[in-house]
Amino acid sequence: MSARRPAGGIDFEPLQPATFLARPHRFLVHARRRGRRVAVACRDPGRLIGLLRPGTPLLLAPRSGRHRKTRYDLVLARSDGRWLSLVPALANRIFESAVRADRAPGLRGARVLAREVTHGRSRFDLLLEHRGRRVLAEVKSAGGLVRHGRALFPDAPTERGRRHLRELAAFARAGGDALVAFVVQRPDVRSFAPNRSLDPGFADALDEAAAAGVRLLAYACAVSPRGCRLDRRIRIDRRAGGGRSR
């Protein structure tokens, strides 16, 4: 994803409109662009239930390269009159940009010390300094599954996510500071919850992390064809979650 970082978020390059036709598998979308059927790379491996229907407006980023099989990447989809980001890899860049600009609610005065920090068997997104302490931070992208204004994560079982939470819990029990930030790349949510009905192991690991002292944060984003940024902190309902999306 080619996108630069303004203060507190990222800017998209100029995007091109299309409409959704089909999703043959999780990494490929077929869309209609200027009357022609085009193949589009999908960077979100989640199920995206209820989001991608025939006729859904999309915004695509043009791509080139001798080894590419598609000429476009899927960036945004429109649902209920709002644009949603479908590029999970942007979550840590959005969060990092907000921290660097001191625009991450709950982390006033934090600094980014390093990226891609290895600890145990895992690599975590960021090492921060906050209130005189070093903090190991993992960022998760949410928003592919929403029910009644609540973002649910994950929308597909994630062993990697469970492992991250268990290792952060162990780190916190050993005296370290850790946090997990859930970045919901859409504006139309009021809260976040683990998806207990789909991945109870992840929900249990999140409870374990919270009990060990890992800090949990969740944010909704402002999304437009121009870019995406953290907008506000949202409530975390660890005992809720599950059910059908809208």
What structural keywords apply?
246 residues, globular, alpha+beta, 45% strand, eight-stranded mixed sheet, 2 domains, Trna Endonuclease, Chain: A, domain 1, OB fold (Dihydrolipoamide Acetyltransferase, E2P)
Q: Can you describe this structure?
A:
By secondary structure, this protein is of the alpha+beta class. The protein folds into 2 domains: 3-85, OB fold (Dihydrolipoamide Acetyltransferase, E2P) (Beta Barrel), CATH 2.40.50.580; 90-236, Trna Endonuclease, Chain: A, domain 1, CATH 3.40.1350.60. It has helices spanning 90-100, 159-173, 200-212; strands at 3-4, 9-12, 16-25, 28-33, 36-41, 57-62, 72-79, 82-85, 111-119, 122-130, 133-142, 146-147, 150-153, 177-184, 191-194, 215-224, 227-233, 235-236. The strands form 3 sheets. Strands 1-2-17-16-14-11-10-9 form an 8-stranded mixed beta sheet, with helices on both faces. A 5-stranded mixed barrel has the order 3-4-5-7-6. A hairpin with a 4-residue loop joins strand 1 and strand 2. Helix 2 runs parallel beside helix 3 (200-212). The longest helix has 15 residues, at 159-173. It is globular, with a radius of gyration of 18 Å. The two termini are 27 Å apart.
List the helices and strands and how they pair.
Elements: E1 3-4, E2 9-12, E3 16-25, E4 28-33, E5 36-41, E6 57-62, E7 72-79, E8 82-85, H1 90-100, E9 111-119, E10 122-130, E11 133-142, E12 146-147, E13 150-153, H2 159-173, E14 177-184, E15 191-194, H3 200-212, E16 215-224, E17 227-233, E18 235-236
Parallel strand pairs: 5-7, 11-14, 13-15, 14-16, 15-18
Antiparallel strand pairs: 1-2, 2-17, 3-4, 3-6, 4-5, 6-7, 7-8, 9-10, 10-11, 12-13, 16-17
